[in-house]
């Protein structure tokens, strides 16, 4: 008898909400990126849980692709952050309002 | 139900394995123990990420969360995903975060109490709580998991051709290279594009010596203006000296 899937889904839900709250309350761009990683991991957890519950390989394949896309996202995001830091030595998201019309 | 399970798990774990003739009971306890340890790590790490003020500490707590998720993956017979979770996330992504934090020198504490918008923080907490309760209400009372089984191949074997291959890496590899071949190729293209984009974004605006052509290198060595560069403005009347005009933005870094 395994741990029921509900428990994993509730855990993933809590992790997703924590990531979303962190994204809203933090001002450091790097920490906001880490919160996005938390939300991605919550989604991965649900994928693996449904893969086990429905006995389906597609869920695990989806996690594989999410990992790759997360890596690409982090690379581009950190490149953008480095480019922004070249111009202004500030770490918070509120200072990057140049695009505001 | 849950407290009874917990009690049973604790009682079974307290037993020595040699004294316990019911091997499946031990596995029940082990499953719950791994789940609870993983859940604790996940939640502790997540709270650390969103509450600590130093970005370096946030990155280290992110590692704890990722290890917890890897534990849950192992508990759900996704061993290969647990391995690449640790290799890719903890080994590459968090290291990248730490590199950028150190490189930019932003490892100072954030003034977490400063609010640019009035009431942003309580509003964020209320929104998170609302989402939590909303999803629980929407999904509570019904079966969490519905839908067709084994649409893209059976994971845990059974009577099909996959029997005896529980959580096998080979199955996942076969699926990725046959059924999900197009997404796989697209992620390969995405990675190449991301690498090129990162290099373009992060490179300095000055060209390094390796990026100059042979003619340009000869021009730099002889102190001439670079070939193809516009003539420097002759407003001052004098000859362009070394380091003026076009050469200023193609400064050679070593």
Walkthrough of the structure:
The complex is a heterodimer of chains A (101) and B (254). Chain A contains 3 helices and no strands. Chain A has a single domain, classed as Helix Hairpins, CATH 1.10.287. Chain A has helices spanning 5-25, 29-53, 57-87. Chain A is an all-alpha fold and 101 residues long. The mean pLDDT of chain A is 85. In chain A, 76% of the residues lie in helices and 0% in strands. Chain A is elongated, with a radius of gyration of 17 Å. Chain B has 254 residues and is an all-alpha fold. In chain B, α2 packs antiparallel against α3 (55-75) and α3 runs antiparallel to α4 (79-104). Helix content of chain B is 59%, strand content 0%. Chain B has 8 helices and no strands. The longest helix of chain B is centred in the first third of the chain and has 29 residues, at 23-51. Chain B has a domain at 1-110: Four Helix Bundle (Hemerythrin (Met), subunit A), CATH 1.20.120. The N and C termini of chain B lie far apart (68 Å).
């Amino acid at each position: 008898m395994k741990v029921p899937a509900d428990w994993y889904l509730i855990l993933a839900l809590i992790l997703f909400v924590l990531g979303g709250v962190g994204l809203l309350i933090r001002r450091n761009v790097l920490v906001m990126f880490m919160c996005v990683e938390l939300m991605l991991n919550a989604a991965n957890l649900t994928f693996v849980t449904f893969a086990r519950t429905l006995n389906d390989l597609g869920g695990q394949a989806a996690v594989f692709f999410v990992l790759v896309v997360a890596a690409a996202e982090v690379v581009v995001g950190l490149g953008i952050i480095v480019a922004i830091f070249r111009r202004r030595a500030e770490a918070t998201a509120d200072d990057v309002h140049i695009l505001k019309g | 139900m849950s407290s009874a399970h917990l009690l049973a798990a604790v009682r079974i774990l307290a037993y020595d394995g040699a004294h316990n003739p019911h091997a499946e009971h031990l596995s029940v306890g082990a499953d719950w123990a791994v789940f609870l340890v993983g859940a604790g790590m996940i939640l502790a790490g997540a709270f650390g990420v969103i509450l600590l003020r130093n970005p370096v500490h946030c990155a280290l707590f992110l590692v704890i969360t990722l290890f917890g998720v890897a534990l849950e993956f192992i508990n759900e017979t996704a061993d290969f995903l647990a391995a690449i979770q640790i290799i890719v996330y903890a080994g590459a992504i968090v290291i990248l975060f730490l590199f950028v934090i150190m490189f930019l020198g932003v490892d100072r504490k954030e003034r977490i109490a400063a609010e640019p918008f009035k009431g942003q923080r309580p509003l964020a907490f209320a929104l998170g709580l609302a989402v939590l309760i909303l999803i629980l209400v929407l999904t509570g009372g019904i079966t969490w998991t519905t839908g067709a089984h084994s649409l893209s191949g059976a994971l845990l074997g059974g009577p099909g051709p996959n029997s005896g291959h529980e959580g096998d890496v080979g199955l996942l590899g076969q699926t990725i290279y046959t059924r999900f071949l197009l997404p796989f190729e697209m992620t390969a293209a995405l990675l190449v594009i991301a690498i090129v984009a990162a290099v373009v974004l992060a490179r300095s605006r000055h060209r390094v010596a390796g990026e100059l052509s042979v003619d340009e290198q000869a021009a730099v060595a002889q102190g001439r203006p670079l070939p193809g560069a516009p003539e420097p403005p002759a407003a001052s009347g004098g000859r362009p000296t070394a380091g003026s005009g076009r050469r200023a933005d193609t400064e050679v870094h070593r």
